[in-house]
Amino acid sequence: MTTLETPMGQNAGEGRRKASALAGGLSTAILSRAAKDAFVKLDPRKLTGNPVIFATWIVALLSTVSAVAAVANHQAAGFAIQVAAWLWATVLFANLAESVAEGRGKAAADSLRATRVTTNAKLIIDDKTGTIVPTAAHKLVPGEVILVEAGDVIPTDGEIIEGMASVNEAAITGESAPVIRESGGDRSAVTGGTTVVSDWIKVRVTASPGGTFLDRMIAMVEGADRRKTPNEIALAVLLAGLTLIFLIAVVTLLGLGKFSGVALDPLVLGALFITLIPTTIGGLLSAVGIAGMDRLMKHNVLATSGRAVEAAGDVDTLLLDKTGTITFGNRMATEVIAAPGVRPEAALRAAVSASLADETPEGRSIVELGRNAGIVIEVPEGATSIAFSASTRQSGLDAGAMSWRKGAVDAVYRSLALDPKLVPAEVSAAVDRIARSGGTPLAVSENGVLVGVIHLKDVVKPNVKERFADLRRMGLRTVMITGDNPVTAAAIASEAGVDDFLAEATPEDKLRLIREEQGRGRLVAMCGDGANDAPALAQADVGVAMQTGAQAAREAGNMVDLDSDPTKVIEIVEVGKQMLITRGALTTFSIANDVAKYFAIIPAMFVVALPALGALNVMHLHSPQSAILSAVIFNALVIVALIPLALKGVKYRAIGAGKLLSRNLTVYGLGGLVAPFVGIKLIDLIVSGLGLA
Amino acid sequence: MNWQGWAEIALTLGLAVAIGWPLGSYMSRVWNGERTWLDPVLRPVEAVFYKACGVDPTKGQSWYGYAGALLAFNLVGFLVVYAVLRLQGVLPLNPQGFPGLSGHLSFNTAISFVTNTNWQSYAGETTMSTLSQMLVLTTQNFVSAATGATIAAALARAFVANRGEGVGNFWADLVRTTLYVLLPLSLVLAVVLAALGLPQTLVAGVTAHTLEGADQKIPLYAVASQEAIKMLGINGGGIFNANSAHPFENPTPLTNLVTAVSINVLGWAAFFAFGRSVLARKDIRALVVAGMVLLSAGAATIYVTETQSPPALVAAHVDASVNMEGKETRFGAPATAAWAAMTTGASNGSVNGMHSSLMPLGGGMAMFLMHLGEILPGGIGSGIAIMVVMAVLSVFVAGLMVGRTPEYLGKKIEAREVQLSILAVVAIPVSTLGFSAIAAVLPQALQGLMHAGPHGLSEILYAYTSATANNGSAFAGLTANAPWWDATLGVAMAMGRFMPIIAVLAMAGSLAAKPKLAPSAGTLPTDGGLFIGLLIGVILILGGLQFFPALALGPIVEHFQVLAAVAGLH
Description:
The structure holds two protein chains of two kinds.
Chain A: H1 28-40, H2 51-72, H3 78-114, E1 120-126, E2 131-136, E3 145-149, E4 158-168, H4 170-173, E5 179-182, E6 189-190, E7 195-205, H5 213-222, H6 230-251, H7 253-259, H8 266-276, H9 279-298, E8 301-303, H10 306-314, E9 317-321, H11 322-326, E10 327-338, H12 344-355, H13 361-372, E11 384-386, E12 394-399, E13 402-408, H14 409-415, H15 425-436, E14 440-446, E15 449-460, H16 464-473, E16 477-481, H17 486-496, E17 500-502, H18 507-519, E18 524-528, H19 534-539, E19 542-546, H20 551-556, E20 559-561, H21 568-606, H22 624-648, H23 657-689
Parallel strand pairs in A: 9-16, 9-18, 16-17, 18-19, 19-20
Antiparallel strand pairs in A: 1-2, 1-3, 3-7, 4-5, 4-6, 4-7, 8-20, 10-15, 11-12, 12-13, 13-14, 14-15
Helix pairs in contact in A: 1-3, 2-3, 2-8, 3-5, 3-9, 3-22, 6-8, 8-21, 8-22, 9-21, 9-22, 10-21, 12-13, 21-22, 21-23, 22-23
Chain B: H1 3-32, H2 39-53, H3 63-86, H4 103-114, H5 130-160, H6 170-195, E1 205-209, E2 215-219, H7 223-232, H8 253-277, H9 281-306, H10 311-315, H11 332-345, H12 360-371, H13 382-399, E3 407-408, E4 411-412, H14 415-439, H15 443-446, H16 453-468, H17 483-512, H18 529-544, H19 548-569
Antiparallel strand pairs in B: 1-2, 3-4
Helix pairs in contact in B: 1-6, 1-8, 1-9, 1-11, 2-6, 3-4, 3-5, 3-17, 4-17, 5-6, 5-8, 5-13, 5-17, 6-7, 7-8, 8-9, 8-11, 9-11, 9-12, 9-18, 11-12, 12-16, 12-19, 13-14, 13-18, 14-16, 14-17, 16-17, 16-19
């Protein structure tokens, strides 16, 4: 991450909200468009993918026909008209759920489209002379080289081949602080739609027209090629099966009823059928999936498919890079141990003085440590800084007669001509202790005398331990990946509370680890940004690439984090779980509803011919017609009532599977059993009170 | 109702589980090909079978290879039974001189015995020759039971496999289950029953001189041995028309206890065997508990309803505290209630009282227990297999609520498993409700009916339920030996048997190929009280709810009519 103004530890903050195109709320504009779309979706061709709602559509049509026939024959049609109207409402409400869910994505897509470049790109047709031809952005093909200067919008995706520039990527990420992009290395990728703020770059086009990151992003947020996820398919199969079973249960009543001398109105059979089939989850299923993608977008994460989001919920093993995720990424000074005979304060002053000219994060952390202890030293006049070099492996400051050095312990000893065996035992012990704990010891000298040892430490971010404990309760194993040696890695791993670590890891090791985990039947998530992470990202079940990362990484992963925050993977897992939970909760609720509906409709259907069955009317509904109408109305309204839950998702709690199940089963299973008894009774009171049936 | 009655029911139901437990361990060893103490005697016999049939028992089959072998074996079985029944009149061992059976009755009976249903559209003692009884029907009693067991063995292997290919060898499972489990146990039970007074003879019958001076011909058979496999094999087809209400099949309360327990013992044993074979004893014990809860509730309901006051008794001003119509006085209401629940919960189909004479809700409960899919504990193996299907559906519906793709016993439950689960459970509503609805309006079907109104509808529903669920018990009152009934009940039996079998084996194939996952803190626990409650809910709602409208028109409305009639008399 090379943002220009990165305050240390900023990415430890959770749930950062940015003004990106993706983070909009539900506006009235979105809602009114959704309402319109709900009617457009009445087109039966759009419903064939959803057997439950398609069946409702057919029954609504048939009941409309029967209502029209009743009107034409001058029969009492009030009941038939109402049933038909509420059946259409059921379909509309299901459509509404889907279009509201799609609404935010569509709005986001619109604002992204607006950032597409309409101005001409500066195509370099002759590199030697630098001849430039203005060319429309959509005509650029891979391999061509363009010039982008300060103030220009980068027309398409590409790789910097020459130059360096600061680029404002707010259009994509919402982050207004510009980032540095330069040729060579992992920072060479630029994204179409972003703006060069200063300097200039030559960019080789890598994306074909229509295949840019922005284009893919628009397609993703819009859900243009939304495919059903494996879990959605499985659930759809179950719902179709239930629909079939209830179709049989209802249709066979024609014969069984005739035998029993019950005259059955097809309209009532249709109503029974619709109330029994799982219209609630059938109507909300796709909304739940879209809303899941949407929630990820709010976290500024783009998933290439719903499948990836779902896989996130199933992840068993999380590979986390140590740097930036578990630790701040820079070693920081945590203490200075004075040599025997040296006052601690003097040792600290010497350490600070040696670091005054050191602009590395380590050096600044030593100055910071001094400042916290009340030691503030200005750089003396005429001081010369001694820069770190690979041969001396130390740095420092010379000011007049004074000189301070700090550096690798053995290097400092050598320059002081100290025999390591003759070093005071206290100092040797401190050096050993620091090394054993995974830290880095630096020796400090003042005027050629060893005064102390600085303890540089990889500092673990606050709260990570708690988060890993949460993950463990969720059933996830965390594995820390680090280039450190095993001793350092073990120390940090135990401090951060990860389950396992991979030390001295190469990209090949990562890939091997992922394959091993997958071989044991586990799903693996990881995040990465370097080009050498690409194979591992592609192999992982959930691969989160950083937006600031290399192009290869962004293409290999199935998610892109626009904030480039490696801790985000934890939120991604939670979003995935939440989506699955929401589906399960609504399915359970929907199925549990059937019990009450039977008790409403069965007595109503049969009571005229078989008065004894009036005993089943436990809700004491007003009349057979009001009972049936109330059940149909409840069935329609419950979809609307649950749209917010479908969009927001059932809250995920890291309390372990058993507790989570008992909680959700109580709320949605038991609730689903009881709610319709209350709801249908209330509606019946209203319906009979208004004299509707 | 009294405490003795409750204790009798509890003892009967409980003994079956208690004996099934250790038997399950043994059955699992048989399925797994482990050493058993019968090996010295039976290994050589087993080897002879394989050699004679040219089968390599160690060679694993894919699920369709396994299913193909199973279907082929059953088809041949069907053809043999059909041929023998048609030709009975000209075949030997026919001391009674019975003629061959009609085409439709032979078709119905052949399917009935091949599918382990043992629905009998005939009275055994006046229809079947000794050859038919002993050779073809008894053979099917053994091998049809073993066929059911094979699917549980295959499914268990699928759950154990880690990216495996095969589901085992059908021929080995068939031979081993028959040879190591059914034959020895039947032998023991037959000796016990003979000792308790059941006839065991090849004599055609004896002639008795009645008090009125008339001669009565009393038919005799090898009853004890038939009875043993009829119970253990969860077949239920009796030699005598009165089945286990007949004094030769079930003479005393003690034989009643022994035979009632043996209805369920191997069904439960298959549960425990499955648990041992898939290394998930605790999870499968949860299934046993769920099954026992439902079965006990069923038995309790029947016992309670049988102690309701029947209107006719109230009207006659006699003791109306218990409904003794259709019951044997030597057994009484509790024994009949326990038996009715156990036989319908277990796809057995034997009866020790007339189910048509049960109070409406009692008869309805017997039907409902069959509607649930014969999983309480169902047939040997076929019961646990469908119970696992129910568990798979429960895990799928509720498992999502813990935020993971559902898993059961370390296998992910995905679209294919859900699809096949639906296929496995859909046969019962399709066939039961479908055929019943047609029969309810078809004149040639209605000719066989004794009653009109709700009880008549119950007769129709019961017949198709019993056939589809491969139970075989009859709700007396229906004369089923007519072309319509024989044909459609035959088709119902085949649907109810082979649709679930194919679905379960296909699921085994799909599960076997998946990696075996280790449980984590995020995995839904499937061995606790919560899961048991969930499973019971799913069985009732997904397995039973669709029958509610039909039952409302039959036993439920009749129940309320009875209540109203009794209230009117008071």
